[in-house]
Amino acid sequence: MIHFRYLTVFAGWEKEVASGTTLKLKQQRSRDRREQILSAATKLFGQRGIDGTSLTEVAAVAKVPLSSIYDYFEDKRALVLDVPEGNFEALYQKTEPLLVKSGDPVEQLRIIFLTNFQYIKDNPSWGRVFFLEIWPSVLAAEPRVKKAVDKYALRYVQLIKQAIRAGTYRRNLDPYTAMSLMMGGMCHLTAVWLLYGRKYDLVKKGKTLFTTLHNGFVQR
Amino acid sequence: MIHFRYLTVFAGWEKEVASGTTLKLKQQRSRDRREQILSAATKLFGQRGIDGTSLTEVAAVAKVPLSSIYDYFEDKRALVLDVPEGNFEALYQKTEPLLVKSGDPVEQLRIIFLTNFQYIKDNPSWGRVFFLEIWPSVLAAEPRVKKAVDKYALRYVQLIKQAIRAGTYRRNLDPYTAMSLMMGGMCHLTAVWLLYGRKYDLVKKGKTLFTTLHNGFVQR
DNA sequence: TCGTATTTCGAATAATATTCGAAAAATGTG
DNA sequence: CACATTTTTCGAATATTATTCGAAATACGA
């Protein structure tokens, strides 16, 4: 067993576990297993929600015994929080190459905002888990994911500040309020999109959203 | 016992339960008891979140035996959903008298929006439960509260449409997108406010939010 | 005051998360 | 290749919490 309580004996590992990083799984086989579980969880959480999914079901879909889950994740909460981790990484990967080209902060803001919508559209299962279940809990408390989200939100704030300095956005615009609008709007739009069976084009709506906000932000 | 399974025998009651209305509690004493439980639940949910609160705790704070909870609420979910019910009623009560005076849709929109922030400020415990826990689940599925929220959201949409017809808001503004922005922004702003210990003036921030959005909505 | 309707609550049951330690598999080393 | 050691797996408990049930207590109307 890879039981966590033993890890405290080894100073080096202790930190790794505490910081939320993956355990040191020394054999490839076991890393694969972890992925299996994570993938089953993402799928099930997306379908039935976190509360509606029991670890027994996750184990069944992942084709591992129930107790094995605890060999890879500290508890259910930890499993839940590992779902967005990988997706955020992927989202960054998609966004980064698009950004460098232009120096205009407003344009970058637009790209980040819309790439996110595109990503949600491509991974609705993640969208559901993240926007409807994890996001609120992050805002409520979870310090681990909070860091990732803060980092993400900070990017918006910085770009907005830049745009203000550049004179594109009005001087008296509060960057945090502006960020709240972008995040909150995205969250709500996505949630409704997911709820009503993805009837309309999310990215298109996202564009409209951005334009409307932009209009509210600019210097007159 | 007031067990729900028996109610299906009486056609009249069956409907009441299904529609989510309160049981017919014929004795005042038992209606008081129900309030006790509800009040304990609101308090605890607000403090530790819904998942973090066990019915055992609710029962303890309400000073009733655990099983009594089931005499008044179908299950935990039902108890959770009854928390916002009363608050929405109270919110409407507060907003209504302020509305009639002016016929200007934009002004009414502003009043609704800000009254809501004021209400959250006065009842942060409700704010936490509703915006961080119930709201997402409503968007995800819950048909019962969804109706209440839809009704609320519809009001926004209608006022926005009126403002468009009146020429105040631009012709090509999508009322639903606009509503998404207002609801989403409010949700995000409130959540962050609650998270960071209510350091700033929520209503003031709400005003800024409204102004910024308004700027994005108006005819140029 | 008695019978019936209504409410209360203690004691089960059920579902699920979580723990534990012995067995199995992999790995390194002579 | 044997064999000691590390690493991983998993079945069988335990713990917590939601939920059910029915008998006892209480209120109420005649």
Helix share bin of chain A: over 70%
- Overall structural class of chain A, as computed from helix and strand content, comes to mainly alpha
Order of helices and strands of chain A: HHHHHHHHHHH
Q: Any idea what the radius of gyration of chain A is?
A: 20 Å
Strand proportion of chain A, as a percent range, falls in under 5%
Provide a count of the helices of chain A: 11
Largest interface: A-B, 39 and 39 residues
Query: Mind summarizing the main beta sheet of chain A?
Result: none
In the predicted model, the low-confidence regions of chain A spanning at least 5 consecutive residues are 1-22
The coarse silhouette of chain A is: elongated
Spatial separation of the terminal alpha carbons of chain A: 64 Å
Count of extended strands of chain A: 0
Mean pLDDT across the residues of chain A is 81
SSE topology sketch:
The structure is a homodimer of 220-residue chains.
Chain A: H1 4-7, H2 11-18, H3 28-48, H4 55-62, H5 69-72, H6 76-99, H7 105-122, H8 124-140, H9 143-165, H10 175-195, H11 202-217
Helix pairs in contact in A: 3-4, 3-6, 3-8, 6-7, 6-8, 7-8, 7-9, 7-11, 8-10, 9-10, 10-11
Chain A binds a DNA duplex (30 and 30 nucleotides) through residues 1-3, 5, 25-27, 29-30, 33, 54-56, 64-68, 70-71, 75-76.
How would you describe this structure in keywords?
homodimer; 220 residues; 11 helices; 0% strand; disordered N terminus; DNA-binding
